[in-house]
Structure formats: structure tokens, C-alpha cells
Design goal:
2 copies of one chain form a homodimer.
Chain A lengths: L7 H6 L6 H13 L5 H8 L8 H13 L3 E5 L6 E5 L5 E5 L5 E4 L5 H11 L9 E4 L2 H6 L2
Parallel strand pairs in A: 3-5
Antiparallel strand pairs in A: 1-2, 3-4
Helix pairs in contact in A: 2-3, 3-4
The complex binds manganese (II) ion (MN) (2 copies) and zinc ion (ZN) (2 copies).
Chain A binds a DNA duplex through helix 2 and helix 4.
Chain lengths: 143, 143
DNA sequence: TTCCTTATTGCAAATTTTTGCAATAAATTA
DNA sequence: TAATTTATTGCAAAAATTTGCAATAAGGAA
């Protein structure tokens, strides 16, 4: 619950408001740390924010992503777009054949991303890249 | 139309079938080259495959992605997941604030990706990375 | 060509996600 | 604290996406 006060100043500084619904959702994301689907987030967050509705969950997640507080990710296997609290950034390797996935640290892509920042002018903080490929097993099985 | 015969052997070799629906959808993706939404693909492909339905479009796009013939991508602004024919691979830079986007060549991330292949055992062909960040304009406006 | 096998499709219904708009409540000001 | 502004929410309905299952048709065998 108090973890929401961590994010409130940042939101207010940008002219946004810290509502009970946003507190609840941030609380869920913050303490889970994992990737959660909108449905999972709805179920957990409604405990703290009883009147919570689905439209609010979807709008809030999009809002948090747009403001860099949450990261959207496609997790193969789960059909739904999942969200995760921003913070310890990392990337995902997913096998497009069997769905097996691997999480890798920033280091792997960091140098290339820094270089992209320099050449493009864009800045990527907390980037959350998903690479689709073939795992070792599936490389042998087929192609 | 004849472009589908380009993909047929690959599918048959894996035990799949080349249907009129798949031909039509591959045709659309192949000749557009651009990212298309399921709705756009449905509208265009139904011209060649009259009885085409939405469930088939969705299932086919997922099928093509899984088999490396099409690449899914989240295009900011458009809410829907878009698909593009596999081939000339590239990456996307998207501003999470204003939605402006930039397409960059493989070179940018290529070295890092090759290194990831070596360390993880995964192989990434036709990778299609979307980096979410802040464009130069939006960096000044806020943060 | 005709006959099989079964991968793939269409249909109908369920589920998920988005949208418009009036009601609500967070933050600022007096 | 009370009043004011407007960002945000809930509700109801629309739109997009997924699913189960029986009917269809692609590809191989005879
Ligand atoms: Mn992640
Ligand atoms: Mn692309
Ligand atoms: Zn695999
Ligand atoms: Zn921007």
C-alpha cells in the first residue's frame, strides 16, 4: 500500500492524479514483480479497490506503460498482453515453435541499445525486448 | 497469386497444407510488405478467397508467425497487433509518449543478437524488435 | 481418377478489449 | 474547510479476438 506513495509524486508532477485504483494496481504489480495478465491484475487489485472495473484496469495499464511505470510484454503461451512493473530491466528470448522462454539481463543488448540512442536521438530506458527465435531443441527437430 | 507457390513447398515439407485462404493471406502480406492489421488483411484477402472468415484470418496469422513466414508487431497508434511478411528484417523505435516511430536496419542490433545466439543457443532469424522509448522532442517536453 | 486420412475451415457462441458519456473524486485555490 | 476544476472512473454497449465442434477439402495412396 505504501509502495504507491513511491509513484505518486512522479504522477502529480506531470499533472496526473493518484487514485485508489491506480494505487491498487501499482501495488499488485510492484509486489508481484512478475508478468501479469489484465485478468490476473483485475482479480488481485479489486481486493484493495472493491469497485474496480475492467475498463479501468485496461486504461490504467496502458497509462502506466505510456508513462514508463509498467512494461507490456507478449508472453507466448498466454494469449493476453502481460504487464510488469518497471524497474529491474531485462529481455526475453522466446521459441516461436515450442514457446519455451529465457530471460536475459540487460548486458546482452546494452551496448547495441546505447549505440542506437546515439544514432537515433531516441532514449530507451527500461526497454523490454522480446526476441522470437528457435530454441536449441527445435532447431534439431525441424528448422 | 503465384507468390503463394513460393511458400507452399516449405509448408508441405512440414506436413501442413497450402489452402486457398493461406494463399490469399500470404498474397496480401507479400505484396503489401507493410504492417497490416487483421481487419485490413481480412478485407483485402477476401477478394481472392470469398468465403474467408475472421477466425481463419486470426488462426492463419498466428500460424504464419509460428512458422516464421510472418512477423507480428505492435504498432503504437494502432491498437491491434499487426502482421508483416517475413523477409527484409528490420527493427522499430517507438516513442511511448507521442507514438512517433522510426524503422532501423538490422545492423543496429545485429552484433548483439549474434552474441546472444552464441551464449543462449537460440537462433534469431528475421527478428523484429520493437524498442519503446522517448523521441528527441518528447525528451525536452517532459521526461 | 477415386478413395482415404486428417489438417483446416466456417459457424455460432464465448471471451476479451475498447469506447462514449455522464457521474465521481483528486488536487488546487480561496 | 468549502468551492472549483477537470482528470478519472463506472456503466452499458460495441468491437475485437478466441474457442468448440461438425463439415470441408488438401495431399497422398491405391
Ligand atoms: Mn519481462
Ligand atoms: Mn516491422
Ligand atoms: Zn523450442
Ligand atoms: Zn515522442
Amino acid at each position: 500500500m505504501s509502495c504507491a506513495s513511491l509513484y505518486a509524486p512522479e504522477l502529480r508532477a506531470r499533472g496526473f492524479r493518484m487514485t485508489s485504483q491506480r494505487k491498487a494496481i501499482l501495488h499488485v504489480l510492484h509486489h508481484s514483480g512478475d508478468h501479469l495478465s489484465p485478468a490476473e491484475i483485475f482479480e488481485r487489485a479489486r481486493r484493495e479497490a472493491p469497485g474496480l472495473t475492467y475498463p479501468t484496469v485496461y486504461r490504467t495499464l496502458e497509462f502506466l506503460a505510456k508513462n514508463g511505470l509498467a512494461m507490456p510484454a507478449h508472453i507466448v503461451g498466454k494469449k493476453q498482453l502481460a504487464y510488469q512493473i518497471a524497474g529491474e530491466s531485462h529481455h526475453h528470448l522466446i521459441c516461436r515453435s515450442c514457446g519455451s522462454s529465457l530471460e536475459v539481463g540487460l548486458d546482452a543488448l546494452e551496448p547495441a541499445i546505447r549505440q542506437l540512442e546515439a544514432s537515433s536521438g531516441y532514449r530507451f530506458i527500461n526497454s523490454h525486448v522480446t526476441l522470437l527465435g528457435l530454441c536449441p531443441k527445435c532447431q534439431k527437430t525441424a528448422g
